[in-house]
């Protein structure tokens, strides 16, 4: 337990660390990677290049300090982080490495302004946070290993199918190389894949939502070809699209993630996605239509038909299930796209226009897509009177403790 003196020091010095947070975190990553280059195999180097991971960690440090009197207020965020860390294979000894270099960086960047008491207080606070996360992650590893078909660490899988879904999204069906079963998952969860990236000379790990319902034999992911810095292709997505073929092997971590539907519930659900954010929604939808009848509304926004993945599957589901409603928005329709046939509304997703179809009594609302898209839909749902507790969303990338 942290003493009150420690908490007071952390709270008092948090604004200073926030002011210099980006410089401290930049120094920290440089220092740590020089001492432990093997950790580049875990960290997302594209986010490093763009400065996104530095900003996210700086926000995380400040948010923890600001809430140190009431750490329970961060429980939902810490749960998300623990799932992400478990999917990356983070281990307790790595927290020690991070702590060593983070504390050293605070001292080296701020110099004499940082006293021994300040460093000691932050060391205790960091150790407390590391213990919380390591304990949560240990429980996740244990649960994953105990599930039928489950495992911890990395497991070899074989690509059995590679199917283009649109101009920018391709699905991969993956089966274990050992021929054994795979663990079931909650609709909405993700798996991590690890690949060697020759351009970087190291391994990179990415999370991809599972885009099918559990079947015990295989997993399906649907990957968007991402654009990296300066218009160059994303390191991992371009490798998967251009170089990974049927019968190739790839390393997978077990399913994790804290964004999923309650499959035992019968209350309505409303799925709201933008772009490739529809992939976890497809898994949710398939499971919801297989379980006892429940109303489902699906709202999706895309630029046009060229990049709209799985459109035919959604439309077939809308024709087949009377309790399923589909609302499609295209903000840049192609000349060949027909309103009322290929899509329902021109423009960005506007929940106000379809509120009669989505304001369902007792419904839960799930949002996935780019962060600005999710913020817009989240705020609109609040304006429409939906309680915060019924709004759920998924953030990929380094948006820890996002403002």
* DSSP E strands, number: 12
Instruction: Report the CATH topology name of the largest domain.
Output: Globin-like
Largest sheet: 6 strands, antiparallel
Q: Uncertain spans, ≥5 residues at pLDDT below 50?
A: 398-403
Strand content: 15-25%
Q: Give the domain tally.
A: 3
Describe this entry's structure for a reader.
The protein is α/β, with parallel strands linked by helices and 403 residues long. The protein has twelve helices and twelve strands. It folds into three domains: 143 residues, Globins (Globin-like, Orthogonal Bundle), CATH 1.10.490; 98 residues, Elongation Factor Tu (Ef-tu), domain 3 (Beta Barrel); 126 residues, 3-Layer(aba) Sandwich (Rossmann fold), CATH 3.40.50.80. The strands form two sheets. A six-stranded antiparallel beta sheet has the order 4-3-6-1-2-5, sandwiched between helices. A six-stranded parallel beta sheet has the order 10-9-8-7-11-12, sandwiched between helices. β8, α10 and β9 form a beta-alpha-beta unit. α2 crosses α6. The protein is globular.
What's the short story on this structure?
With 403 residues, the chain is an alpha/beta fold.
Key features of this structure:
6-stranded parallel β-sheet, 403 residues, 41% helix, 12 helices, NADP, Rossmann fold, Globin-like, 19% strand, 3 domains, 6-stranded antiparallel β-sheet, single chain, oxygen carrier activity, Elongation Factor Tu (Ef-tu), domain 3, alpha/beta, disordered C terminus
What topology does this entry show?
Blueprint: H1 4-19, H2 21-35, H3 45-50, H4 52-66, H5 75-88, H6 92-110, H7 116-146, E1 155-164, E2 169-176, E3 190-197, E4 202-209, E5 219-224, H8 235-243, E6 249-252, E7 269-274, H9 278-290, E8 296-302, H10 311-320, E9 324-330, E10 345-346, H11 355-358, E11 364-368, H12 371-383, E12 391-394
Parallel strand pairs: 7-8, 7-11, 8-9, 9-10, 11-12
Antiparallel strand pairs: 1-2, 1-6, 2-5, 3-4, 3-6
Helix pairs in contact: 1-4, 1-7, 2-4, 2-6, 5-7, 6-7
